[in-house]
């Protein structure tokens, strides 16, 4: 049983609850994509909890069903451990709601799962607004990094990957996002683009924002031209 309101853990409190054996989410039957996504979203992203409380009742007309989903998603208990069976209950509910039947046994794309949870179940508005090459704006819940192999990047950090991916795709953020969820470059068992990626504890999006005033690297005044 999880209380209706349980804010994300911080610093030493998070370390005490979430470190050690039998902590986190127990994996089972290709659940890794879901385990990692759920843990990241509901363990320490306070913005998601706030949005879920605000938008949740608008998502489902059946209050009993909506509360059932809410209890399953607000899974971070005081023990810091979630059994595989609890996640399987969620996967079975997704199937019962008329979604793809393979949610209970197959590995799915994290973005597909995220869109399902955010949009169709929780009714949360898109978190990102992107624009590519002056084209029409696109709304989405997360950004997946796409880029070609670059020999000068051996062990990159997230800041480098995001900047180069935006540059290669000619993308800009239309506004500062309330929450910036990023999916790392995809890879399979036979090929990994990067053996390791260093997490950036802070992300500077100054150069990723559309029509944002920036400093000229030559004179230090407000820039009037942008060179890729």
Automatic annotation (TrEMBL):
What stretches pass through the bilayer? Answer: none
Under InterPro entries, the record lists:
Papain-like_cys_pep_sf, USP_CS
Indicate whether Cytoplasm appears among the record's keywords.
Answer: yes
This protein's UniProt keywords: Cytoplasm, Hydrolase
Q: Name one GO molecular function term.
A: cysteine-type deubiquitinase activity
Looking at the record's lineage, which domain of life comes first?
Eukaryota
Which PROSITE patterns does the UniProt record give? Answer: USP_1
* Keyword Hydrolase (UniProt): yes
Q: What is this protein called?
A: CYLD hydrolase
Q: What is the lineage of its organism?
A: Eukaryota, Metazoa, Chordata, Craniata, Vertebrata
């Amino acid at each position: 049983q999880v209380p209706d309101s349980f804010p994300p853990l911080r610093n030493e409190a998070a370390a005490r609850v979430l470190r050690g054996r039998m902590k986190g989410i127990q994996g089972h039957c290709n659940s890794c994509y879901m385990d990692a996504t759920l843990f990241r979203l509901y363990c320490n992203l306070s913005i998601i909890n706030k949005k879920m409380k605000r938008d949740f009742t608008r998502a489902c007309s059946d209050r009993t069903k909506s509360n059932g989903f809410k209890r399953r998603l607000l899974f971070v208990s005081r023990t810091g451990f979630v059994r595989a069976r609890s996640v399987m209950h969620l996967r079975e509910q997704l199937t019962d709601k008329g979604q793809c039947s393979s949610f209970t046994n197959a590995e799915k794309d994290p973005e597909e799962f995220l869109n399902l949870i955010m949009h169709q179940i929780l009714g949360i508005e898109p978190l990102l607004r992107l624009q590519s090459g002056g084209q029409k704006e696109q709304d989405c819940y997360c950004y997946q990094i796409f880029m070609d192999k670059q020999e000068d990047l051996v062990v990159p950090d997230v800041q480098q990957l995001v900047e180069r991916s935006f540059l290669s795709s000619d993308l800009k953020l239309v506004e500062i996002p309330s929450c910036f969820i990023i999916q790392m470059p995809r890879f399979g068992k036979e090929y990994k683009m990067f053996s390791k990626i260093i997490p950036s504890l802070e992300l500077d999006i100054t150069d990723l924002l559309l029509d944002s005033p920036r400093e000229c690297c030559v004179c230090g005044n407000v820039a009037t031209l942008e060179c890729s």
